[in-house]
Design a protein that fits this description.
4 copies of one chain form a homotetramer. By secondary structure, chain A is an all-alpha fold. The first copy, chain A, has helices at residues 16-26, 31-54, 57-88, 92-96, 99-116, 131-139, 144-156, 158-182, 192-203, 216-252. The interface between A and B is large, with 44 and 48 residues. Chains A, B, C, D: InterPro entries: Ion_trans_dom, VG_K_chnl, Volt_channel_dom_sf.
Chain lengths: 287, 287, 287, 287
């Protein structure tokens, strides 16, 4: 169930600066490591904000040179961090080719490429992927527990969701082909892929309105598609809710203590005595 | 509860090539049958992709002759498969008039018709129905279990969903008539069917925006319709989730112990005695 | 919990034609009453269809005189039914002023008014309310059980839903006032009521697109409103689902038989023997 | 869990007019206090209605002077109420800087400011915040119980909802940056913040249609975003429903029997012995 493997990395040498930096980077319970995490999170958020704001034409014209300097500051900082990570882990290549390692690289690579390759300006947008790095850092904090329950429920219902997605795609193709024949290119249903795009937009109740049916039959089929689509789109909510409720219920029921006298099980987590015979229960295990 | 009856077909002769092809087509646990299924799934997906891509005007102009050849290749392959299916089953007519038989026929018929009848080009779109055939093949794989739970919940809540749909249609008619009177043809509410189309689009929160209220009263009624509609549209999600949660719960609780005396199954997890004949049950296995 | 009181009406005379017609109208288990219901349902559906189709300008021009005749046929039929209902019930006035009595009257009144008052054409649309009468007839059939569960859950969560609606209206007013100040009349936010209409349309994820924010601040607030709105709109689904699941669970658990030997309760509805001590259980009551 | 602390205020003097007015303002079970609450609720609703209606240009022109007078009437009434509240509570400053105190002040301040500062007309809209004051008054009534369950479930799922919101923002930033590069300013995706606004509007299925994709790749990504977004937006409904169902279940199961020895409450419905001290419990009441 582990989508991203935790960096179980040991430093090359047990002592010295590698050991110290490994602890700063990978632990979360010492003051230096907390300061490091905090610095990194703020740097990431600030750098993403700069990328976003820099895309606004009016602001770009006025502040371009400032943003250029700031951006290189962030790039050098993240480069230093990346090199440091490579140095302190036992198997640097394994880190470099892990998901997080690639994301770390993508966070700095665009700046260097656009420096050497003049036309690669549009690549700079890749830098917003830096945002994903915030999740790695937050992952080590107290939110992991909640995230675990949410992810577990998602994982448990993966096949149902896949089945649901293939149903949606099938309906989109059939409805799209139908509307392509009925409405035709005159009303924007230019071809089947475009009609499928319309069908997905309609079924998911987004309804941009850039393409709309104009014929009576087309409108009738649209109404039917909406109602069918709505019923089907209730499915993932249903799947997920049911799975989540089950997961939460099971977590809550974790008490497995049995009464030594009557063997009754299923006590409340806080119970001290068996609720059937009144005998004392064993102490609950620490969670 | 079986929406599509499984093809329980026996070959005319117990041995020979019919027997071999029946196994290839209808079994899933031998290497040849797996290869057959895989070939078919890929052929179907490829042919649907060709239909879709061919509808794009730009691509059609450039590749029309290629697509023509490829399409006839698929048609001949599916025709061969259709004939083979007819030959190996015990009752060919029953297969031919079953849902799957008709879908198989619709997968190949449009190509032949458009070959003989010049004006029947728009019929070619029917070929996207081939996609449904993928479901038959996948049906025999491991997804059937998940699909079963989803379908069972859907089937159990069919009456509630029907009731809900008739409620939606009623509200759409009344709201549509109301808006037709209030807004009138000047703002696109040309007649009651059009207004009903608008009401469905609005209630289901699609909101294309091709028809919108302009008068104050119309906007007020729209707001009310949205809120009422939203509350009502929460119903199918609720129905489905509750039913699904129940189905999943029951499945999980299904104790697999059978009574040694009367063979009754489906006891509660905590039961010590068979609830039909009263005989002692075997100890439950540790989960 | 009874939203519409069932017509518990006794005929004035115990025998004769009144008795016979009362049975035909109010019972559902005799062949004549079933034929009566069926006739009525089809007449209602046909008359509503005529009203709908007649509103289409093109069809109206061509078929106006035919529809006029057909419509008067339906009006006379429903008038006869209305008079009959008044005659056979013990307290005609009470029926006349009940919800169903008023709906029955509204089904026929517009035709007569438009006959005498020339300008009352738009009143004719009121005739679509006839559709509601179908529910009375269906109410007496097997769907009542499903409807009961749905209604019970709705009724149980009425206060939560009211609270939710007042939250939505409050947010709509505040967000509407905010957008009115930020965007102003230039971009369609002409006044607070219009802005409120926009806020409801946006929050409920309808999003017509007739009024959209154009300023950066307006777009930011819109994004926030959508996310807040979405979280809040998850509430009625949650309320309803939880209530429905509870209602369905409770219905399923209705078995209240206790074992006469060990007193254990909570057996399955189909259990014949106590699952704790194996003693025979009393017969379950008929539901 | 208390979002708004209840006004636990004692009057400066135990007797006299302060005591009487404190009771009128803060109690709900005496006839004068009920009349006071009712008067206030109606005054608030009326004053908000005036603000709303006054924003309609056509009405403003015709009724401006009347609204001016009425508005000052409300302002004076609410000012009197505000002063009264300050006078009767033991710690006026604490009230003045509480959430409710600030809302009470905001309800009257705009009128006075716009009287002295000519250009502050747009500030008058702040007066719709008066509406929030209705909740304080209703808070003291029977709806508090329902509100409590809803709020408790919301509070319990706060971390999951926060996690969900950060997921939505992350996806919006990445999808926004992607669409900015693919579609570009030519089709309205002028910059990343605008693209993010589009991504939120699309993911939440609002779909205004003011900005829509035009390229094939853009439409493909939009379809993917909608499906991913829809699956993710099912999460808060799932979280909330599961939490609400759990909360409602727990409330319903709360056995009201207290242990006669240790006073512990909240036993399971089927418990025979106190699960804290092991003493026998009284027999449960019949439900």
């Amino acid at each position: 169930m582990r989508l991203f493997s935790a960096p179980q990395l040991n430093p090359a040498s047990e002592s010295g600066w590698r050991r110290r930096w490994f602890d700063i980077i990978h632990r979360t319970d010492t003051p230096p490591s907390r300061r490091f995490d905090l610095l990194l999170v703020w740097a990431i958020l600030a750098s993403v904000l700069v990328v976003m704001v820099d895309s606004v034409q009016r602001i770009h014209v006025a502040w371009a040179s400032w943003f250029y300097v700031v951006e290189w500051g962030f790039t050098l900082l993240f480069t230093a961090e990346y090199v440091l990570r490579l140095l302190v882990v036992r198997r640097p290549l394994r880190y470099a080719f892990s998901i997080w390692g690639i994301i770390d690289l993508l966070a700095i690579l665009p700046s260097y490429i656009s420096f050497f390759v003049p036309g690669a300006q549009s690549l700079l947008v890749v830098r917003v992927l830096r945002l994903l790095r915030v999740f790695r850092i937050l992952k080590l904090t107290r939110y992991i527990e909640e995230s675990g329950v949410l992810m577990l429920a998602l994982w448990r219902s993966r096949r149902k969701i896949l089945l649901f997605l293939s149903m949606v795609v099938t309906i989109a193709i059939i409805a799209g082909a139908l509307m392509y024949v009925i409405e035709g290119p005159a009303y924007g249903f230019s071809n089947i892929p475009t009609s499928m795009y319309w069908a997905v937009v309609t079924m998911a109740t987004v309804g941009f309105g850039d393409i709309v049916p104009h014929t009576t039959l087309g409108r009738f089929i649209t109404s039917a598609l909406i109602l069918v689509g709505y019923s089907i789109l209730a499915v993932p909510t249903g799947i997920y809710t049911a799975e989540l409720a089950g997961t939460m219920l099971r977590e809550r029921r974790q008490d497995t203590r049995g009464c030594v006298v009557c063997g009754h099980e299923g006590h409340e987590a806080k119970a001290h005595y068996c609720n059937r015979c009144g005998h004392e229960l064993p102490e609950p295990l620490e969670p």
